[in-house]
Write a structure and sequence with these properties.
four-stranded antiparallel beta sheet, five-stranded mixed beta sheet, about 190 residues, 11 strands, about 10% helix, disordered N terminus
């Protein structure tokens, strides 16, 4: 009987590097943002988060300049149900910062995470991380259009969820994740002294 139980448990457990089939809880803690570049001197930033067919919005902030830092301190939850393993492995978590408008919201910048990348981090958690945003709709999509500080937890059915607390400020704010489409160009200067 014990052998049958072991075999059944082994069949249900995912192998290393695989996502699970089932329900997911995606917890995004929007901490703060800075240096948002829009078409005008000020922007009214709002964050849109999309993953596995679900979409949530943060509150909108008003009249933020390029040199201002804005604090959200908002928790956003996405709870996709009955997710197939293949869908979970292919899923992208998209974070977009929009300039809230009367008729149409314009994109300030965005960042995409592969859900499997987040899920296989220690404790399924990305903690207090600055991300660089870029606007894929602009003429120069390699230009950084702002920064957003986030914490993200991805838990599947049966996983232990880790509590996301506010940043205690102990770590530095100089570590920034860059989107793959940003390829910085480095130049080398040569001087000759005669």
């Amino acid at each position: 009987m014990a052998e049958v139980e072991k075999k059944g448990a082994a069949e249900e457990a995912p192998s290393v590097g695989e996502m699970k089939r089932g329900d997911y809880m995606i917890h995004i803690y929007l901490e703060k943002g800075k240096e948002f570049k829009g078409p005008n001197d000020t922007v009214d930033p709002m964050v849109e988060i999309t993953c596995l067919g679900q979409k949530q919005y943060s509150s909108a902030k008003d009249d933020i300049t390029q040199i201002s830092e804005v604090t959200w301190s908002e928790h956003i939850f996405l709870e996709p149900k009955n997710v197939e393993k293949k869908a979970a492995e292919d899923a992208q978590l998209q974070i977009r910062v929009l300039d809230k408008g009367f008729f149409k919201d314009s994109v300030i910048g965005q960042f995409e995470f592969n859900l499997t990348h987040l899920y296989f981090m220690k404790d399924h958690l990305l903690l207090h991380q600055w991300i660089a945003l870029s606007n894929p709709n602009s003429e120069d999509y390699s230009k950084i259009t702002g920064y957003l500080k986030v914490s993200i937890s991805v838990a599947a059915t049966g996983d232990e969820q880790v509590q996301i607390n506010e940043d205690d400020g102990v770590g530095g704010d100089d570590n920034v994740m860059m989107p793959p489409q940003l390829n910085p160009k480095f130049y080398q200067l040569k001087f000759r002294i005669f």
